[in-house]
Amino acid sequence: MIKLAGPLTSKIDRKSELYKNLSSANSRLARKDSSLWGPAAATEAAIRLNWVDLPESSRDLLPALDAIAAKFRGKEVVLCGMGGSSLAPEVIAGTYKKRAFIFDLTDPNYAAHILKRNLSNSVVVVSSKSGSTIETASQRAAIESALVAQGLDPKAHLIFVTDPDSPLDRAVRAGGYTVINADPNVGGRFSALSAFGLVPTALMGIDPSLLLDSAAAQKNQLLNEENVAIDLAYLMFTQSDQFLAFVDSPEIPGLSDWIEQLIAESTGKDQKGRLPVVISNVTEAIASNQMRITFGSGGDLEVLGDLGEHFITWEWATALLGVALKVDPFNQPNVTEAKNATSELLTEWNNKLPELPATQKANTVLAELLSKVDGYIAILAYLDRKEDVALLELRKILAEKSGKPVTFGWGPRFQHSTGQFHKAGQPNGAFLIITADAKEDFQIEGKEFTFQTLVMAQALGEYRALGARKYPVARLHISGDSRDASISEILAAAKAL
What we know:
- There is one protein chain.
- Helices cover 44% and strands 14% of the residues.
- It contains 19 helices and 14 strands.
- The protein has helices at 17-30, 39-46, 54-57, 62-71, 84-95, 108-115, 134-149, 167-174, 195-203, 208-222, 228-238, 255-267, 307-325, 335-348, 362-370, 393-402, 418-424, 451-467, 483-495; strands at 3-5, 76-80, 100-103, 122-127, 158-162, 178-181, 243-247, 275-279, 290-294, 301-304, 376-381, 406-410, 429-436, 473-478.
- Helix 18 links the parallel strand 13 and strand 14 (473-478).
- The N and C termini lie far apart (46 Å).
């Protein structure tokens, strides 16, 4: 069972009016009452609440999961997906010490890690509710082309997870592919215990029942009128006005990133919400207005439990936090805005990347951005999170220099998590977008654009969307083949501020 510890537990007042209101909401949530978040949210909530049932209902998937696990035993798992569809499988892989390549970026250098691999021993999971997400559709098309180029039958290597009777479902079933349907009444960020999380789990050789059993036992505890999900929602509402600092544990690596997208995308609406800030360790200096949440010792709040327990508890707590904040936790209106900005640029460019003006030097860009910081800084890096990982240090440096919370997101992955908060949460962000040339580009089968054109359209579309709101936004571009040297120069410039 999830246990809470740390100094902040003394702040939980179960006799307060807020706690009583959350306790009442908790019982309504257990009944899947779609009116819980107000009349404007009721229609969306009515088709998004089946995640409450997943610890039990997902057991219906077990025979199909056993079958695909046997069919593809020993294969290397590749996952094409975005948001919760990729972050949940990634934390599952890390927790159980399994290997999986998560294809959730559009940077050509990152794409090269999979597109230039021998795919004969790979099983590729394509996860998309409808199939319309441009990143996942492009990744799928590129991998399918790579399989054909290697003389492999795509139908023997691809598995699709999608909603029943979606456009993707109809197309791939007609093509003879393996398909596992997810519950259509579950949103992506609440889908960890659905087919989107469990299909990759089974293919990695992990028994999905382990997650479902612990989640089901934890859910029984959440039905009580006082429980840890209510406690979490209460503390996130009362002990923070915007920022929540999360520190990963070695036992559950990546859990902070999954929680980041869950909370940020669910609550960042109507110029309010809670923004998780993933930090490296509990000793890191953070701004005074953040509460530190850990999954081990040393935090202001320590949340202790296994992965299945965490999944259902944080989903439950996030839904209750939406009640406290009076926001709809199930919509994401501004994610579409980023997609539209990308499409507009691709059209303006006629699907060919034009020559863009050079950006200013790092010291100039960083100094100017820091002079405009109000609430927080968000670093949005449209690079390779496998090879360009040294850039993560920039988050810590800018936090020390500015004294403000600093988030780091790999683009375009963050658009399906914190991207919603950036545009509709508290309007006090300052944004640094980092782009780069690629060593090699890849044409996307069926598209008129390449990965380099796509990733630049996504980055500059984000720049345009943020700039239209008059937010401080700057861009650095890394030119040439050597990203390592340029990243070192950026870090040096930040340290010299």
